[in-house]
Design brief:
This protein is α/β, with parallel strands linked by helices and 364 residues long. The chain is built from 14 helices and 12 strands. It has helices at 8-14, 16-24, 42-47, 57-74, 83-86, 109-120, 135-139, 158-177, 183-194, 196-205, 210-217, 230-246, 282-294, 329-346, and strands spanning 28-29, 32-33, 50-55, 78-82, 97-103, 124-129, 142-145, 222-227, 249-254, 271-275, 298-304, 316-320. Strand 6 (124-129), helix 7 (135-139) and strand 7 (142-145) form a beta-alpha-beta unit. It starts with 7 loop residues before the first helix and ends in an 18-residue tail after the last helix. Fructose -6-phosphate is lined by residues 56-59, 103-105, 108, 111, 155-156, 240, 244, 360-361. One of its GO terms (cellular component) is cytosol. It comes from Evtepia gabavorous.
């Protein structure tokens, strides 16, 4: 049942190229993103002045990627908020809000509650869900299924990446309908989406050294992830993967926040995993990497394939294949899932069933 793999998590990581293929292929037709399940008239669309994304855990981190991508392409305000917070803060949503709810199981209690709060205030609700017929799928006005197939390991992998793929597609779809994408730019983005399955496969194939890197880093008790823009969004998921299955303490910080406190924790040999794939901000990341190096950190950098500059500073490097800059989160999370997996393995953890965690959190 594990398809020859030692754990469901590894099997599910390896299934990602196919899972993503099932997610995207039916939704690209004649060079356009087509979301048949999302029936928005032009009038409906004109009414929307804000997009709010809500979810828990990894699904929230997928939503955080979606915030960067959607806001950049659609040029309307996009907020991502934790469902457990949104539900209790008398949210400012109304009939002009599109609420995007993200959930693999479709049964997460806080997510359902946040959704109901927003529905009561008139928001239009689009759910991105994996499980057909789940509670969230039933409550939503529109549903886009992620088609990842069943996910058994408690730590999500293909659930998360298919959510990100749908959010990337949704961003292109909405931007196109809002008149924010010309034919040429639309073509480039759609072509990049069609490459997602091979991109994910390449992200796996490019990094055969991950078990060795895990051997080098697994004995540390604290690690920091840093990144900017979509790299920051991906770093939060990378950090969660590591902590939930390996029980190492790790935290993700927006790299610009280091100076505002966290840098006090950087000391000799402290591992810092620096995500620096978003090239527009690469120089800024290089300065952050220099700052932590100057305080003795060991830096494991995650950069685009072909980047040579990084060797001047990084102790170790993970390479990520190139795509449209806004879509970087997708290939870059894959080696970080594998890194977490091999670190947990090196630490002898029960990878598919981490302690204290349930696959679906149906109580508050
Ligand atoms: C982490 C993980 C959880 C879930 C969260 C939301 O690996 O799996 O953080 O992402 O509990 O679950 P869903 O997506 O089912 O609403």
């Amino acid at each position: 049942e594990k398809g020859g793999y030692d754990h469901f998590m590894l099997k599910e990581i390896m299934e990602q190229p196919n899972a993503i293929k099932s997610t995207i292929e039916p939704r690209i037709q004649n060079g356009e993103v087509v979301l048949d399940d999302f029936s928005l008239t032009d009038e409906d669309l004109r009414q929307i002045n804000k997009i709010m994304i809500t979810a828990c855990g990894s699904a929230f981190y997928a939503g955080s990627v979606g915030k960067y991508v959607m806001e950049e392409l659609c040029r309307i305000p996009v907020e991502a908020d934790l469902a457990s917070e949104l539900r209790y803060r008398n949210p400012l949503v109304d009939e002009h809000t599109l609420l995007v709810v993200v959930s693999q199981s479709g049964e997460t209690a806080d997510t359902i509650a946040a959704m109901k709060e927003c529905k009561a205030r008139g928001a239009r609700i689009l759910a991105i869900v994996n499980v057909v017929g789940s509670t969230i799928a039933k409550l939503a006005d529109h549903v886009i299924y992620t088609w990842a197939g069943p996910e058994i390991a408690v730590a999500t992998t293909k659930g998360y990446t298919t959510q990100v793929a749908v959010l990337d597609m949704l961003a292109v779809y909405l931007a196109r309908r809002l008149g924010k994408l010309d034919d040429q730019r639309n073509k480039e983005l759609v072509e990049a989406i069609l490459q997602f399955p091979s991109l994910i496969q390449r992200a796996i194939d490019l990094n055969p050294n991950l078990p060795a890197l895990a051997q080098k880093y697994h004995g540390h008790n604290d690690m920091f992830f840093i990144g900017r823009n979509v790299d920051y969004a991906a770093s939060m998921e990378g950090s969660l993967k590591l902590k939930e299955i390996s029980y190492l303490h790790s935290e993700a910080y927006a790299a610009g926040e280091l100076k505002h406190g966290t840098i006090a924790l950087i000391e000799k040999d402290r591992p810092v995993i620096a995500l620096a794939c978003y090239e527009a901000l690469f120089d800024k990341m290089m300065s952050n990497i220099k700052e932590v190096k100057a305080r003795g950190a060991q830096v494991l950098a995650v950069v685009l394939e072909g980047n040579r500059q990084i060797f001047a500073e990084a102790d170790d490097v993970i390479f990520v294949p190139r795509t449209e800059a806004l879509f970087n989160s997708l290939p870059e999370i894959v080696p970080l899932q594998l890194f977490a997996y091999y670190v947990a393995r090196a630490n002898g953890c029960d990878i598919d069933k981490p302690k204290n965690l349930a696959k679906s959190v149906t109580v508050e």
